[in-house]
Design brief:
- By secondary structure, the protein is of the alpha+beta class.
- The chain folds into two domains: 281 residues, 3-Layer(aba) Sandwich (Aminopeptidase), CATH 3.40.630.10; 84 residues, OB fold (Dihydrolipoamide Acetyltransferase, E2P) (Beta Barrel).
- The chain has nine helices and 20 strands.
- The protein binds zinc ion.
- The site of zinc ion has 4 residues, from loops.
Length: 377
């Protein structure tokens, strides 16, 4: 295992952060996998899962079983790891700019298209190499600010990988996986191996999250050059490892074991990955997710837990306005607008009007969601 420390620019005199990068296998070997945890720095489960995965990878390397190249960033966001406001960890947005740490990654499609237009040919594998080289070339110039350098460093480590796994978590949720629609059903072994009850698909979810900056480049170029064969050569996924408090040794061990098996199955580690578990549920469109909002300020009491299959009209929660003296008007029932899987809900039990309380994944795209930014901020 090679351990690399990448210094981020000092944001102020007297302070400097660094990024640790672990490399397994032979540099340049294929397939290449890139994994990172806690890009949203207050989403902790992935840190433990990856920590346990790294231990397994060290054993595999001692046994000369790493057949590809595996790059792991154990703590993807040292800036956000250190952001506390009045005792509360704030890891989602960079406090200086207000920018979400998992948005606004470079959309390289146009720039790369310009560069490769005269180089692409009839061999998809050669085209893949040409596009990877061009994408790395476009990322050659580093930006200046600490947070921009962090994002730039992470995307540069990942952009030429065959597999990119970005480990996040939700507020309170079941394990779910975000994937690009063009990767489906080829990528089904990831949610199947992880035992994920839900896979959400979108080609462009809006806001340029990390995984889409890596994978979306390929379908943008395929659309740009219909005359050339271009594979979706990067299987990038955002893996939501349940809720923010779902940090347990046993759970992390199981998740790490499943990620290891996935990497085995994908040809990065020697050995038998065993039989692939059945996929729990068919994938669903991200456009089919109903955002269930509170119409008022009040105290939320949920009626169902994440993982529940609900029907249109089922009671999901009750919001009570504690300032209303009339029990009838104080109590507002929140019901599901669709049939689907209630897969995530907000942990804070004090709702604001318009705030999303929970999300229900249905099988069909919803008119209100089409063409919109599909991810919550
Ligand atoms: Zn996240």
């Amino acid at each position: 295992m090679q351990v690399e420390q990448i210094l981020l620019p000092a944001p102020a005199p007297g302070t400097q952060r660094k990024l640790q990068v672990l490399r397994f296998g032979t540099p340049g070997a294929r397939p290449k996998a890139y994994l990172q945890a806690a890009l949203h720095a207050d989403e902790i489960p992935g840190l433990l899962v990856q920590h346990k995965l790294v231990q397994k990878l060290q054993t595999a390397e001692r046994d000369a079983a790493i057949t590809g190249e595996i790059v792991v960033v154990p703590v993807a966001n040292p800036i956000g790891s250190d952001q506390h406001l009045l005792g509360m960890h704030q890891g989602r947005y960079e406090q200086g700019s207000g920018v979400n740490f998992n948005r606004a990654y470079p959309d390289l499609g146009e720039d790369v298209a310009e560069q490769v237009s005269t180089q692409l040919g009839t061999d998809a594998r050669v085209n893949t190499e040409i596009i990877r080289a061009a994408a790395l070339e476009k990322l050659r110039e580093p930006p200046q600010s600490e947070d921009a350098v962090l994002k730039h460093t992470l995307i540069k480590l990942a952009i030429d990988a065959d597999i990119v796994l970005d480990l996040h978590c939700d507020s309170e949720a079941v394990l779910h996986v975000y994937l690009g629609t063009p990767l489906w059903p080829d990528a089904r072994d990831l949610p199947a191996q992880l035992g994920a009850p839900l896979t959400l698909l979108a080609s462009v979810s809006g806001g340029n999250p990390f995984d889409e900056a890596c994978s979306g480049l390929w379908w943008a170029l395929a659309e740009h050059f219909p005359q050339h064969p271009i594979d979706p050569a990067c299987l990038a996924a955002t893996v939501e490892l349940r809720g923010e408090r779902d940090v347990h040794e046993d759970l992390a061990e199981d998740d790490a074991h499943n990620l290891y098996r996935f990497l085995q199955r994908r040809g990065l580690i020697a050995g038998d990955a065993g039989e692939l578990p059945a996929l729990a549920n068919p994938a669903k469109p991200l456009e089919g997710v109903a955002m269930v909002r509170s119409p008022l300020a009040g105290v939320v009491a949920y009626a169902v837990d994440p993982g529940a299959e609900v029907e249109n009209g089922d009671l999901l929660a009750v919001v009570n306005d504690p300032l209303q003296r009339d029990a009838q008007t104080a109590r507002v029932e929140i019901t599901s607008p669709i049939d689907g899987l209630l897969y995530a809900r907000r942990s804070n039990r004090l709702a604001r009007p318009g705030q999303t309380l929970c999300r229900v994944a249905g099988s069909e795209p919803l008119p209100a969601r089409q063409g919109k930014h599909l991810l919550s901020d």
